[in-house]
Amino acid sequence: MQTADPKTNQAPVNIGIEESDRQAIAEGLSHLLADTYSLYLKTHYFHWNVTGPMFHSLHQMFEEEYVELAQAVDEIAERIRTLGAVAPGSYSQFAELSSVPETRDVPSAQEMVRLLVEANEAVVRTARSVFPAAERANDEATADLVTERMRIHEKTAWMLRSMIE
């Protein structure tokens, strides 16, 4: 009979990935989750507060982005749970784990775009950092998730960068 893990209160995970590898991958994914959530907050904040001649297009673009990010947060957290780890979920945990800086003022529309380029590129770097552990463990599911996140954030950064004067 299998006993529950006291940290996660779930039955042991036996998916062909060693415990130490699952923990290393989950740690990397926790950073990706924090970055993604921080980018979600920043993008949503900018959606609410953008002004100027590009208001309509940026307002709409930012909404499309934060809706996609909300789905991504769930997928990343669920992968962490699939690996048998606990997904972080508090603001303080995200602040500790994230490489995406918080924005408290209301920048100009152009500055919002520039800040979102930087933030999307930070998320790409974090996603890329998860690969070594996933590859060592032959964790194709995580590699696939991380590849998709990199593709989306690289394309978003490119599209945003194209809007900067």
From TrEMBL:
It comes from the Bacteria. GO terms for molecular function: ferric iron binding; oxidoreductase activity, acting on metal ions. Signal peptide: none annotated. InterPro entries: DPS_DNA-bd (IPR002177), DPS_DNA-bd_CS (IPR023188), Ferritin-like (IPR012347), Ferritin-like_SF (IPR009078), Ferritin_DPS_dom (IPR008331). Residues 27-165 form the Ferritin/DPS domain. Belongs to the Dps family. PANTHER family: DNA PROTECTION DURING STARVATION PROTEIN, GENERAL STRESS PROTEIN 20U. This is DNA starvation/stationary phase protection protein. The lineage of its organism: Bacteria, Bacillati, Cyanobacteriota, Cyanophyceae, Oscillatoriophycideae.
